[in-house]
Structure prediction request, 267 residues.
Amino acid sequence: MSDPVIFQQGDTPLLVSFPHDGTDIPPEIEARMTDAVLARPDTDWHVARLYEFVAELGASTLRPRSSRYVVDLNRDPSGNVLYPGADNTGLVPTTTFDQQPIYRPGCEPDANEIAARIERWFSPYHAKLEREIERLLARHGIAVVFDAHSIRSQVPRFFDGVLPDLNLGTASGTSADDALASRAFNVLASSREYSAVRDARFKGGFITRHYGEPARGVHALQLELSQKNYMHETPPYDFDEPRANALRSLLRRFVGELLEFARQGSR
Prediction:
């Protein structure tokens, strides 16, 4: 069995997580799924590729091999929902963002299978995430966790109209020091080409909320990107290098601000 996570250790206090970048689905699971899943429509397509520069800047990176349809690494395993009163997708989703069934009738995973998926895919990702955070704290006295995401620009299930281009989440200001969050957001908001919001519809998922402990020196932020700015949003979801390069110049400045804050706070 291959390692379910792909990890590269850096030498700065920054850890970049890509929990929805994976596309693998074991054949025995995929055989029970509907055709709606074949193209992996809800993947955070090409996000690790978009941010490939972070390794050059010395950040540690972590991403899964498995698809979010196997188990969603950014959902609370206890079952707590991210947005009470709103439509949410679960730890092991049963419908796509377009509300198409993921499983054929009678083929949905039961509680035992969900527990097995947590053990096989969810737990290794979070164990590695936790170990790296503790290593960064021990070495630098601070850890900045950046959870990198993307989504189609229009998903009526979750929001009306067109999503802002850059959606920064800090769990309503609880997962990161306000000085860091403000500096990071100011970089995003300085762009004339992209719209930016902070702690709006996307406030951060389980990773941001669970690991962000500013009082302990762990600062977690999530950035949800609108995919139209770096790729084609319809199958086969091709990467658009010219658009991606334009966006990367802003993302480099954003990540640079995270690194500068982390270095200033390190021992």
The chain has a mean pLDDT of 95. Helices lie at 27-30, 47-50, 53-56, 111-140, 178-189, 206-211, 241-265. The chain has one domain: 5-265. The CA atoms of residues 52 and 163 lie 24 Å apart.
